[in-house]
């Protein structure tokens, strides 16, 4: 997802303030890493493996049943990805993995052009040991897989080269997802925070600050890029800019994102919610209610919201309560983390 910042590790300067006492943020940080990130990547890697195996079966026996099973495996894999998509920090930043997992928005059709070129090449090219780690990010992940399964230019049921390419992309995606999952098992969030020489800082606070920054920025991307932009909320409507629109996963993806937010808020003992309840109870409850409303309002949108022939005005009318609710949750979250002592900077996901 190209809206997200390119962060491999965060350098902390001497100007970063110390916490009032050490270990204050151990509970929420450890909970988010364990219950949201590690668990989420493990689940994503498992469904990526299932997709790769199902693709192999499809290529070996291109039947309607195997095609349907492959599409179901893809849909499950996409929704598992949505649970961890909010975080572009840590192992996923190596080798441009984050952007390779999902190259979106692809306004110029780069994925289709590069996939067509690959399909026309000798298939032995893709067997080179380092081919996929050096290949374009546009052809290495879920965006490419969706194109190969749903774009009319590709017919994996009939064309061996197309199915072979699909097999290779799904295998690479599984390998990458598995690597990230393992690296999270073997590391801590603090390992991805580096202090400048002479700086003193609390590594737990600095790591949690980055996690919270990512959460706030992703919330903005969901509202702006996933919802407002394709329906023309503030401009021209272009439903093809919706995320995973070919596979009709645009709305389920948003719903999965909003579900992940409450997991972040309540992860750990104590959780961020628990600490906020103690220090800023009114704001803590306002954020909690906004996160619940986000989920309810997203579930109230019709399943065919991005597909059927609703008018632009109808779509905007239906989406307005959700847009306002996400905006409110952004405001509450930013206010809360600021009052808890975190320094949240500008939104580096703005733009394309």
Automatic annotation (TrEMBL):
Domain Imelysin-like: 38-329
Any one of the GO CC terms: cell envelope
Alphabetized InterPro entries for the sequence: Imelysin-like (IPR018976), Imelysin-like_IPPA (IPR034984), Imelysin_sf (IPR038352)
Localisation: Cell envelope
Pfam families: Peptidase_M75
Signal peptide range in chain numbering: 1-22
Superkingdom classification of source: Bacteria
Main location: other
Keywords: Signal
Name of the protein in its database record: Peptidase M75, Imelysin
Organism per entry: Marinomonas posidonica (strain CECT 7376 / NCIMB 14433 / IVIA-Po-181)
